[in-house]
Amino acid sequence: MTLFIAILILAITGLIAVFTKPKGGAVTAFALVPAGVAAWISSQLMRLEPGEMLTTSYPWFEPLGASLDFRLDGFSGMMALLVTGVGALIVVYASGYLKGHPEMGRFLLLLFGFMAAMLGVVVADNLILLFVFWELTGITSYLLIGFEHEKADVRKKALQALLVTGTAGLALLAGLVMLGQVAGTWRISEMLEAGDVVRASSLYPAITILVMLGAMAKSAQVPLHFWLPNAMAAPTPVSAFLHSATMVKAGVFLLALFSPILSGTSLWHGTLTVAGAVTLLTGATLGLVQTDLKRILAYTTLAVLGMLTMLIGIGTDLALKSMVVFLLGHALYKAALFMVAGTVDHETGTRDARILGGLRKAMPFTATAAMLAAFSKAGFPPFLGFIGKEYVYKTGTALDSFAPVLVTIALVGNILLFALALKAGWHPFWAKPQHGLKPVSAHEGPITLWGPPLLLAVAGLACGMFPGWVSRALVGPAATIITGVPVETELALWHGFNVPLGLSALTMIGGILVYRSRRLIWLKQDMVESVQGPLSVYERFMTNVVGWAKSSTRSIQTGALRHYVFVVMAATAALMWWKFVRFAGWPEWSGFEGFAIAPALIGFVVAGSAIMAAVSKSRLHTLLALGVLGLGNALLFLYFSAPDLAITQLLVEALTIVLLVLVLHRLPDIKPKASRWLKFRDVSVSVAMGAGISLLVLKAMQVQMGETISTTLSEWSYPLAHGRNVVNVILVDFRALDTFGEIIVLAIAALGVVALLKRNPEAEKEDSA
Amino acid sequence: MTTHSFLLSRMARVILPWMVALSLIVFYRGHHLPGGGFIGGLLGAMGFVLIALGDGANAARRALHFEPVTLLTVGLSLALLAGLVGLLFGPSFLSGMWLPAFSLPLLGEVHLGTPLLFDAGVFLTVMGFSLKVVFALKEVDS
Asked: Which of A147, A481, A548, B110 is the most buried (most CB within 10 A)?
C-alpha cells in the first residue's frame, strides 16, 4: 500500500496547495514532497535485486478484476524516480518562472495531480488501474496545457492533445480488456508469464494494434504526432515536465512494459520499428526549420520518441537496453533544455532563435546548464547522451537483418538531433546576436530558474562519467525487467576503436555541418510549414463533427414544448400499441362486475372536462376544465380509499392554478388556425395515447407476474418501520432512495425554472417577435 | 398586474400562522395517518404563496425569513444526513434507525427515527421548490 500512499500524498499536496495559495518561497517548499517520495523510492530500489519485483495489492472492485495492485521493479522504479525527481525540480523552477502568478494554487494542484497520475501509471500492476491512471494523466495534462485558458488558441491546442490521446486511449482500453481476458489475469506481473498464451490467441492482432495505437498516440508517433508541438502552448515548466520525463514517455513505457507479453511477432516489431523510424526522421527534419526554441525542442522530443519506439520495435536485448539508456539521458537533458528555453524567454522576452545570441555573458549559469545539456543531447563524450548514442549504433550494427537501413536512419536522425541540440542549447548563448538585440538587456534569472536545469545537466554529465554506477543502479535492473532475462549490465564510455565510435564521429561532423547552415534552413520554414499534414485532416474532421452536432441539435432540439410533448407521446403510444398488436396481449373484457354508480359518474365528469379542455378556444376555459378534471381525480382517489393521494392531488391542483394565474396573461393565444393535418395528427396521437394507457391499466389488473407486494408491505409497515400509514412508510423508509432521487429532481427543476425565467431580455424579444 | 387586493393581503397574514401550524401537524401525523412530508410541504408553502399573491414575492420572502433555495439546500442535506446515519450506524444507506420511544404530554408516545428526519427533508425540499417557482414567476410577472 505504501506506493498507493505515495501517490495519494502527491495528490493531497496538490489539494493543500490550492487551498493555501502559497506564494514565493512557500511554493519552492512544495518541491520537498516529490523529492521525499523520490528519496523513498530510491531507498526501496536499493534493496531490490535485479529482476526482483516489489508488489502490493489491495482489494478495490474485485468482481471486475480491478484491484489496487502496485509493483515496483527496476524499470518502473527508474520511471518513478524520473517522475518524482524531475517533478521536484519542476516545482522549484515553476516557483521562479510563475512567480507572483495569481493562480499558483491551481497550477500546483494540476501539476501535483499530474505527477500523482503519472506515478500511478508507472507503478500500477493492474490493467484497469493502469488505464485509470493513464486517463488521469490525459485529463490533468489537458488542464496543464490549457493553463492559460483565457486564450482561445491555447484552449484549442489543449483540446487537440486531449482528443488525440484520449480517443486513442479508448482503443487502449479495448486492447487492455481483451488482453486481460485472453491472459486470464488483470495483474501485469502475472501476465508476463502468459506471453505465449496471448500470442497464440486469435485476438492477438487486435490486442496488439489497439495497445500500440493508444501508446503511439500518447508518445506522439507519426501520424498522431501533431498535438505535441502544439502542446507547447503550455507554460514552460509544464512543457519541461510533460515532454521530457513524463507524459510522452508514458506511451514508450507502456510499449516497453508489454514488450515481454506482446513482442515476438512481425506485427509488433515491424509496426513499431517503421513508425519509430518515420517519427524520428519527421521530427528531426521538421525541427530543423523551427525558430522558436520551445518548438525546436518539441520536435526533437518527437524525434527521440521515434528513436525509442524504433528501439522497442527492434526488440533485441541490446536494443531494449539502449532504449533505457537513451530514455534516461533524454529525460535529463530535455527537461534541462526546456527550462533553459523558458529562462531565456523569461529574461529576454523572446524565444526566437533567429534573434537570440550572445547571452553567455549576461546569463552565465543558464549558459552553463544549456551547454552541458546540449552536449549530452548532441552525444559528446563523456555525457550520458554519448553512451546512449553509442548503444544505438551498437544495436544497429549487431542486427542480423536490415542493419544498414536502420543504422542509416539512426545516423541521419542523430546528425539532425546533434544540430538541433546546438541550435537550442548553444546558439542562444554563443552565436553572434542578430537584428540588433542587445544581450545586455538580458540578465541572469534567480537561482530557482537556473538551478534546476543546471542540476539536471550536471546529473547527465555525472551519469556519463560513472557509467558503471548508472548501469548497476538503474539501467541494468530496468533492462532486465523489459527483456525478461538478466542483462549484461556494464555500460562504459570507451569500447575501443570500432564501428559505433566511427559512426559517432560521423554524427558530430555531420551535425556541425547542419548546424552551420542553420540560417539557410530557417529561410525554408514557410515552405515546409505549408505542407498539409495530419493536422489538417484532424481539423477538417473536427469542423465536420462540430457542424454535424450543430445541425442535428437544431433539428432535434426545436425549443418548442409542443414538439417535445408530441415526440414523447407518439413514441410512448407507438411502443404500447406495438406491444399489444405484436404479442396480441389484449386485456380480456371482464363485464360489468364491480360496477358502481359513484365512480362512474365522477369518471363521466372527468372525461367530459378533458374533452372540454381539448376543444376550448379560450385558455381560461381550458384551465377551468383541467381544474375540474384534477378535482374529479382527487374524488376518485378518495372513493378508492387513497386519502394521501387525494390530498396531494388537491394541493397540487391548487398550486397549479396559482402558477397558471401568474403566467396566464403572458402566454400567447391558442393557435387559432392550426392546419387540418396538424389537428388530425395531434388528435390521433392523443387518442392512441389515451386508449393505450386505458388498455394498459386494464391489462395490468389481469396480469399477475408475481406475488403482490402491497399486502407484504402493509404487514411490514408497523413492525418493521414503526408506521401505520403504509404510503408514507413506503415513501420515507421502504423506497426512500426513490424519494431521495425525486426530491433531488425537484431541486434541479427549481433551478431550471429560475434559469429559464432569468434569460437575457434580448432572447426574450426574439422569441416574442 | 398592479392591482392590489386589500382582502387578500389582510387574510393572507391572518391565515399564514394557521397554515404553517397545520402543515407541521400534517407532517408529524403522516407516519400513522394521511399526511407526511410531501403534503405538509405543499401546505406549508401555501400560506406564503397567499402572501406572494397579495403583497408580492418580496413580502413573502420577508415573512419566510429564508430564501427558498436555502430551504431546498437544507431539505436535501437533511435527507442525505438521514441516509448517512443508516450507512454509518446501520446496515446500509437510508435504512431506518430509531431512537427508543418516549412519552411527551400532548403528543403522546413519541418515536423518533431517521425516516422522520428524511421526511422533514422532503417537507423542506417540497416547500422550497414550490416557493422558489412561485416567487420566480411572481417576479417575472411584476
From this structure: A481
